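Bug report

Summary: structure tokens for Transcription initiation factor TFIID subunit 9 differ between web form and batch submission.
Environment: batch mode, default settings.
Steps: 1) Submit the sequence below via batch. 2) Compare with the web form result.

Sequence submitted:
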Amino acid sequence: MAGQGEEDVPRDAKIVKSLLKSMGVEDYEPRVVHQFLEIWYRYVVDVLTDAQVYSEHATKSTIDCDDLKLAIQSKVNFSFPQPPPREVLLELATSRNKIPLPKLIAGLGVPLPPEQDTLLSPNYQLVIPKKSASIEPEETEEDDEDVTNPAPQTSQQQQQSELLRQTPQRVSFPLSRRPN
């Protein structure tokens, strides 16, 4: 998108365009340059604001190079966290490597760990809800006369039967082997 009014373009926009061209980007929207400039200006303002705060904290009247370095370093540390020190990683590796690997299954081809230690065999769980009697039969006077009051259920038995009716049944099975 080069060539359209290069004389009227600000110096910063020319720099962004040359950066895009040096990275091999030939075709882009004109708004991309404005977006890069906005990000660039926002970053510079943030760094200068932080440098000013550091300068005021040090009771200096002006911002110097050390304030700018500290502001840039704090931005880098905030944006890109540093990896842990080498000693910490070595200590973690030695403690992890003390745990032996599981025994391998002997056979032809590439040796694999036991099947329960792999993620290769899919396992599915189905939830089968139990049907609940949503419509209870109505009692009539004739039914009441014929029944000779059997032992009434206690409230605990009623709660257990209700809980069993509401609890879904879970069925799980591996699909690693198919029957012949």
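Above is the batch result. After comparison, the two runs are identical; trailing whitespace caused the diff. The first helix runs from residue 11 to 22. The chain has a mean pLDDT of 78.
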